[in-house]
Amino acid sequence: MATMESLIVTVNRIQRACTVLGDHGGDTNLPTLWEALPSVVVVGGQSSGKSSVLESIVGRDFLPRGSGIVTRRPLVLQLHKTERGLQEYGEFLHLPKKKFTDFSMVRKEIQDETDRMTGKSKQISPVPIHLSIYSPNVVNLTLIDLPGLTKVAVEGQPESIVQDIEIMVRSYVEKPNCIILAITPANQDIATSDAMKLSREVDPTGERTFGVLTKLDLMDKGTNAIDVLEGRAYPLQHPWVGIVNRSQADIKKNVDMIASRRKEREFFASSPDYGHLASKMGSEYLAKVLSKHLESVIRARLPGITSLINKSIEELEAELSHLGRSVAVDAGAQLYTILELCRAFDRIFKEHLDGGRPGGDRIYGVFDHQLPAALRKLPFDRHLSLQNIRKVVSEADGYQPHLIAPEQGYRRLIDGALNYFRGPAEASVDAVHFLLKELVRRSIAETQELKRFPTLQAEIAAAASEALERFREESKKTTLRMVDMESSYLTVDFFRKLPQEVEKGGNPTSSSVDRYAESHFRRIGSNVYSYVGMVSDTLRNTIPKAVVYCQVREAKQSLLDHFYIQLGKKEVPIIFTPAFSLTCTYIHFDTSMCHPLGNLIGTGFIQTVVD
To answer: Does pTM surpass 0.70?
Structure first.
């Protein structure tokens, strides 16, 4: 069985992998592997002595110093104990294999890497910096240093900085696997401590909190922190630990941390107030306590972590199986893959139209309900009102009244009425166009083979949309031509029957005798209305034929034809260069489609395209 030390090292490696692959917790509500890993998070207000505590634990002066917010990104500090005699060094995750033996350069790199992410401003970023320190003077331990809590934004900081920092800190300490190292200066009233206030909110029982009192040597004469350190003033489930920070004089003189540790031990051993607690005080004792506690937490959480990883592997393997085989790197094979994916989409699209999948029936609904309803609502009553008929007929006659039948008046009334059919014809075309676009969208979403190629999905959608637009324009021209054809040549037989019907009615001359009577105009309106009704019945049948022929039929037969032509125009040696936007950029594997842990577990995912 692995020792506890090797378990901490393993957790460190998993944390580094999480960061490389974008899983660093803190800024997401999704379950991630990072959140399942126990960690020690250092929390404190600005100038609380956080940096000094960390440097005392490490035994090296390596953190940036200054006024205001110095820590602007989380620092994941992983300590690895080495054998005596080996050289100490630091190593950053973003600079693998580069060993820093000069710890002043470690400080500079922390500052430079922070600036690379946040710029020279005083903004903060949730993306952590990973620093591993290998030394015989440390214990195996991982600490996460966060920006210091503050109450006021200083010059150069946004007004939201106070809330931004608190939100970031809370996102870490609220996690149940987080061990809180709450730093509070002893020369400050503990009731006003930002760290203790926050830790009490997220960990009211104190089960996850370790309290640390810094600057014990700077307390006013005659005062001490015994009540706090012994757990009476502010009880926690874990014992308080007192720390003596390096003085500013020692920092300016570059007194090394080993000497500072020695002075700290001497302070507690010789102190009349804290002498009886000397064995449980100091940065060295704090590091050992934290390391031991972290080991026990890892042991307790280990089954859950293992279960989470195994479950994630199963989910990812199932999804990979569902996504299909990997894409070949050969140019010709990639082109074949694109065409194969397009055919899969085309097959599903046709199934929607032909009834194998839902959606195509809505096109029939346009012809069976929407078009007839639109035709019934056309304003023929207004157009064929007695007043309008008299006006149109009179204007058509001009100075010479008609002799027998007002043919020009008839034609003008019929032309005006038939012009109303253009609206329903165009509306039918647009309605079917909308439905076809929706079926394209649904078909892309339902084509499982396309799910890992978001760029190809977008290109297919664009190509299909462009084709449907062409089909719509052609369909609109055709349907409007059909309306125009009805106007350009009237059905003569319909009107030839009218005089015969009048004669059968026993009043063959009434149309000429009462040509200006109201009954005459009513008869004209009735005749025109009957003719328009006949045309309406005709168009009700022919408009769907034109729409289906120009739009639905074309969509089934040649939706992606133009797209295929564009692919075919490119020679194989050329089309897979980065400059060609229609092919090589399509085959782009999107790991975000996978489980949130996919970035870590599925590091074998393939991305085959040169972007």
So the answer is: no
